Amino acid sequence: MADLTLRQIEVIRAVMMTGTISGAAEMLNVSAPGVSRLVKHTEESLGIRLFERKAGIFVPSVEASAVFDQLREVYKGVANLQSAVGALQKGENVLLAFASAPSIAQFVAARAMRRIRARYPDLYIDLNILKIEETVDYLMLERGEFVIMSSAVQNAAIENEEIAEGRVVVILPEGHRLASRKTVSVRDLADEPMIGVDPTDPYGRMLAQPFLDAGIPVRHSIRGRFAQTVVSLVRHGLGAAVIDEFSVAEVYMPGLVRRPLAEDVPLRSYVARKKGRVLSGFAEFAIEQVRRELARAVEDGPRYRGS
Length: 307
Hints:
Shape: elongated
CATH class of the largest domain: Alpha Beta
Distance between the termini: 79 Å
Oligomer: single chain
Number of domains: 2
CATH architecture of the largest domain: 3-Layer(aba) Sandwich
Number of strands: 11
Structural class: alpha/beta
Order of helices and strands: HHHEEHEHEHEEEHEHEEEHH
Helix content: 40-55%
Largest sheet: 7 strands, mixed
Strand content: 15-25%
């Protein structure tokens, strides 16, 4: 006995639902004679009568009732499958967990999240803010799929991929004596009250490096743990700072002036993940959006720094 094909199942269901050959043809957007021929061929190949015609309406035959019961279950399963696929496409009942360095989270990650939300409106997102020393536990315990950091994570079980290169910039309070300059050197900042991050921290060490290269001692009048803290302190007129351009990648930042650092200090950003871990499609999409926003921040950097 021949097996039913998916096309035969589709046509039989259409006849069952509409009660007529013409109705089934319209439902499937095919010709009525084609539907009629396929139903007849199916009955002949199976050796059973599927429909009886009563008052011009096709109704399932008594002997084929078990077939139609199974047919309903098949289409119920298909409907459930389509519902599950639709939910997955929107990110429904799915968790995307990842983390970011504070310097990237405020503007760059926030803009990337907007793109992720537009693509997956129902996706639940858990964004953590981590210091670099916290990333190994986060990744190895699989609390999240990846981490975006401003320096590579030094651990044999972690793999790093460079996704952007930016620059270190100078930020000053509005009205500062150096605000009128097009560029500011670390030598210009030697006698300024400086706000910074502990140089023993990898991020703080990167910010301190241009001073050390110029033979200028690093003296902070105030230190903050996160880049956002440094930005806030400068905005309130408590000193000047050097900082990565991603931390100030916003056009409108009242109370703050950004200027290029005369010394060219590159700053690289990385995506870190547990070695060998296969990322979800949601995570891969999120990384691509972060990469895109980091590139945008670099492209727009001259406009931001010249504000």
